[in-house]
Amino acid sequence: MINNNAPRPLRVGVVGMGWFGRTHLDAWSSVRGATVVAVCDRDPAAMADVGDAPQEAFHSDAGSGGRRPIPAGVARYEKLQDMLAAGVDLVDVVTTESEHEWCIRTALEAGADVVVEKPIALDPAAAHELVELARARDRHLYVAQVLRFDPRYIALSEMVAGSTLRHLSFARTFQSVAHQVYGRTHPVLNAAVHDIDIAVWLVGRAPERVSAYGSHLLGHEHPDCIDLVLEWGPLRAVIQNSWHLASTCPFGFTFDATIQAAEGTWTLRSEPVIHAWTTAQASAPEMWLWPRYGGARQGALVSELQHITDCVADGRDSDRVPLSQVLDVMETCHAAITALSSGQPQTLTKAMP
Questions:
Q1: 8 A C-beta contact, residue 239 and residue 227
Q2: DSSP character for 34?
Q3: Distance, CA of 328 to CA of 205 (rounded, Å)
Q4: Within its chain, how far is the Cα of 335 from the centroid?
Q5: Residue 302: exposed, middle, or buried by beta-carbon count in 10 A (0-12, 13-18, 19+)?
Q6: Across-strand partners of 92?
Q7: Which of 167, 177, 191, 307 is deepest in the core (most CB within 10 A)?
């Protein structure tokens, strides 16, 4: 029997048809209560159903299987304003980082709710303005921080909850080719931001002081080795990012986290759960963040988009990634970038509640 009273699915428009935009598009098909009705990219070639993305060179472990076609019936637009005029409830912004602010502002002013891949903007002032705009327009703004939806990090956060934290350490390594792609903006904003976010999540607030050290071994504009020290009084978090992982590694990046507290020590490592050796190659498929198996996208990204869909349906902000902590993370990132350029530790002012 057809239930004519069932709520209609949330109409989603995805902006940005690069590698991760395509991954988002694929993930939305696994989300209940939402359907993608439109995609948008100012480059028509990005919306073609054939082609390669540079990320495939170091994200082949994600199971994307190359560029997946845009589903039939999904409208294609080159201008965000045209997509908004056609009618969408939620705009999913997966563009390059420098375009986030404009896309968010345009969508909110048109009356749509917005989810944006981290970072929300390139500087704290813009982030504060966007949060205030969402409140003024009575719209909801969500910032995607996929690690908060990774079962490994969820379990870690629950295990350490209530502990007297003593020291946090995070290390993340990427293949050098990734720096050629993600070096389009400062790596603090598109890489270290992950571990900064986890540190803020576990501690519950922004640090009081940030020190930073960087190296430019690849000769690029932005550093390819970063060491950050976040301080909350005597508690410190050490965050290390580098782009020198051997290209023979069967996955695009590695990471580990160690949380030390008065009550115990917890360690999380990115060890593959599946190793595959064939006559062609050795591989280790990524099985947690956005893997594809069983004919559909799975993992933390799907859980994240499902959470946001449920929040929009309920008319509420996210309690998993509260905007107060989004602003704390932005303040911390800005302090880290300033410390890297100046060589001087930075003291943070409290982010807006």
A1: yes
A2: E
A3: 7
A4: 20
A5: buried
A6: 14, 115
A7: 191
At residue 181, the pLDDT reads 80
**What is the distance between the alpha carbons of residues 184 and 190, in angstroms, rounded to a whole number?**
9
Where b means 16+ CB within 10 Å and e means fewer, 34-62 reads bebbbbbbeeeebbeeeeebebeebbbbb
Highest mean pLDDT among 61-65, 120-124, 281-285: 120-124
Check residue 272 and give its pLDDT: 86
pLDDT digits (tens, 9 = 90+) for 264-317: 999 999 988 888 899 988 888 889 999 999 999 999 999 999 999 999 999 999
Is the pLDDT assigned to residue 40 strictly greater than 90? yes
Domains of the chain and any CATH numbers: 10-146+302-323 (3.40.50.720), 148-291+329-347 (3.30.360.10)
CA 75 to chain centre: 25
**CA-based end-to-end distance of the chain:** 48
**What's the whole-number mean pLDDT along residues 247-276?**
91
Quick one: tokens of 59?
């994200």
Q: Environment class of residue 116 by beta-carbon count within 10 Å: exposed (0-12), middle (13-18) or buried (19+)? A: buried
Q: Is the peptide bond before 71 cis (omega within 30 degrees of 0)?
A: no
Spatial separation of the C-alpha atoms in residues 1 and 174, rounded to whole Å: 52
Choose among 129, 86, 75, 77: nearest CA to 111: 86
Q: Pick from 193, 204, 12: which is nearest to 93 by CA? A: 12
d(CA 286, CA 297): 12
Strand partners, 77: 40
- Return the amino acid letter for 46: A
